[in-house]
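To fix ideas, we quote verbatim one protein's residues and fold tokens.
>
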Amino acid sequence: MAATAASSLQIAGSKPCIFSAKNILKGNVADIGIKSLTASWAKLSSACHLSSAQHFSRPFTSSPARFDKAETRAMSETGESKAASGLSINLKGKRAFIAGVADDNGYGWAIAKSLAAAGAEVLLGTWVPVLNIFETSLRRGKFDESRVLPDGSLMEIAKVYPLDAVYDNPEDVPEDVKTNKRYAGSTNWTVKEVAASVEHDFGSIDILVHSLANGPEVTKPLLNTSRNGYLAAISASSYSYVSLLKHFLPIINPGGSSISLTYIASERIIPGYGGGMSSAKAALESDTRVLAFEAGRKRKVRVNTISAGPLRSRAAKAIGFIDMMIDYSQENAPLQKELSADEVGNTAAFLASPLASAITGAVIYVDNGLNAMGVGVDSPLFKDLNIPKAN
């Protein structure tokens, strides 16, 4: 099964989903339009001024797609003529490749926006079967509201690449996939080919983001999960990251950063999050530590993963209980509020920046503190404990 973008719960449904930041697995984000821009966005304003002349294009088609408004200018309130005061996240001159973005409703998209707001140039990898829909939506301005950056400009996407991270090389692709009409018209979409295309087009990158996950049997209890379903979840959600880093590492500049997205089900029981997805997330976190050592020694590249809380995204609905998980988090987390996608995006921008130069091999929790809880305090059993509630 093809890898898709992850969602809020980091899960994938029985049908391929795209977690534009999480396929319930990871990648899909809640609405991050103008209304959701919070004070945290302001902190990402950098002292840089980024204005790329290269518009969104799809060179692998006969008709490159373009939209004239795609111009990113990430600037601080002090203006270009003055130095920014205090610490700022400045990624000017950096280039990021984000795998697993297929709409504007996931963590992957939110991460792209935060990196762009800090001055980075953004490249995207989109699952092949939904590539045309994604590009069409971009051209028609359907994502314009959610492309708005803190300074009022629109996030520019330098290029979108077709990607199916389940396949490492062209030789790995089965004949039925090669002839599938959903893949017609797209070429060079295996991991190795995409890395080569990015190198050809841009030379190098500084930031690699993995926002991919898929579990074809995610709604099944682990005891009812087939071997093929289990291995498919591991392949699309865990090994895909190993493969991406393996093929992109030679073109990641020393001192660069790589980030993935995980979920608390890797270490806690989340009933309903099945199909081997909890195992896949546990593997992803273990791999993060090993990859941090290997990539750090080879290329001085840092490797971290963000354990994000549940997000109200389209992909997250594939497992059917995302609303319940969000309600549970709001009742039981130390911070009683709904998690926003930009909070995860801002954390990714920090991890990609020089401010996090000594952080690697870490699982960073962005879940309003839910991971720290040992019990659900909303239980009737605790009604007499006078547990404080948020105002």
